[in-house]
Amino acid sequence: xxxxxxxxxxxxxxxQELGFSIDLSRSGLEDSYIESLAPRIExxxxxxxxxxxxxxxxxxxxxxxxxxxxxxxxxxxxxxxxQHISDNISEIKTFAEAIHSGSIKTPGGxxxxxxxLIGIGGSALGPQLLAGALAAADAPLAIHFFDNTDPDGIDxxxxxxxxxxxxxxxxxxxxxxxxxxxxxxxxEAKRAFAAxxxxxxxYAVAITGENSQLDQMADSENWLKRFHMAxxxxxxxxxxxxVGLVPAALTGINIDAxxxxxxxxxxxxxxxxxxxxxxxxxxxxxxxxxxxKGGKDLVILPYKDGLGLFGKYLQQLIMExxxxxxxxxxxxxxxxxxVYGNKGSTDQHAxxxxxxxxxxxFMATLIEVQQSRSASAPPFEVEPGVTTxxxxxxxxxGTREALSANGRxxxxxxxxxxxxxxxxxxxxxxxxxxxxxxxxVNINAYHQPGVEAGKKAAxxxxxxxxxxxxxxxxxxxxxxxxxxxxxxxxxxxxxxxxYHALQHLANNDxxxxxxxxxxxxxxxxxLTS
Length: 529
What we know:
The protein is α/β, with parallel strands linked by helices. The model has no long low-confidence stretch (mean pLDDT about 95). The longest helix is centred in the C-terminal third of the chain and has 25 residues, at about 450-475. The protein is about 45% helix and about 15% strand. A 6-stranded mixed sheet has the order 1-2-15-12-8-11, sandwiched between helices. The protein has a 5-stranded parallel sheet with strand order 4-3-5-6-7, sandwiched between helices. The protein has a 3-stranded antiparallel sheet with strand order 16-18-17. A hairpin with a 5-residue loop joins β9 (about 325) and β10 (about 330-335).
């Protein structure tokens, strides 16, 4: 028996009952490294137990973190929380069935044909992942998204459903109810419905925190339906809350199987034996590859079109959770793991050249779906004895070999087939690995101060933009450079910020013109009328 085969078997963990396995034989993870982290590993297991038991896991916000309860309500720390979860699932199923059966119709008496989901971040990424991976071609409702505040993107989406706007159910998703991008998308949708003389509230569903701004609006305007999320559900881990389950159920996805797959992975990754816990082993492989400091990026290559958005989904889950300036002791650490990737074999043609021969600043995770095509579809040979699925498997194995032969760490995850249950498993695996890794490096995985800083800075720019508009309005016909405007405006003003505001207005307001000078300082802007 050769050494390579022995090493593979030693570093191969299989959950037979789930049809899931992880191959760490090319990851570089060493037993001695695991032993050196034994105290941290023990603490990480204990931290996870406390989190699942309802201890405050997000001290900055004084909140519990309960996404693991969403797929097993019996684990919730109180009967009230357990009932909230169970009631939500029941309510989702009842609502989706009423929409599908036509018990709930459009105001015009027809069945709904489309869903327009308005959200951003986890409020869109989770539903997009589920739809891309699991929604059938003949789904009961086709789903569309406003997941940005980009006017062109909004117009394009509206154009695709323009003929069926009166058959479109609208989901507005915001936990706080005050997310600017989501509010903007909602206002754009309201305008589109009003232009067709359609009563927006009769088509609208709110998914938000109880008594939020959005919840109060939906209540006062008598929207079609409201679903409530709990404060212990974070955006990046909300896919199995009402955020993900409502659109999933509406598009015909089996939400029971999704939840069951996640619950099964949760159960097995509570295993306290490190070497049999795939989530802990994955977290340890990340830790060793990046020296516990995020020294290597994580490249995700799922070999399945349905998982094309999985890398993007994991970007938010991992980077928002682990990208932190300080640890739990207040020490400056600048932690994080950068995540990118799309799908194999497509991305092999895009960047495997660099992965193999370029800078060694990454670790790769390949995701294999063993069943290439639906069992009901006959195999098709593109060469004698070789199918398209055989080629896909060949490219996966080839990439694994090419990377590991050059010393690049590679993990291979395998699932039998892509369905609601197996996707639930994958999501749960990465959620727990992320939580374990955070404990190993002593950071809070469940807050996002950097996101809030970005929102604050955006608000400050919008405030400047309004002041610039007002100043130009009171000086119609007069031309200003950014420096001149800074001298004219009341209060302190950053000239560069004013310049960017002027450029934006000149490009988007027909009444404001810009004249390019030799340098940005010479550019002139005028309100013409």
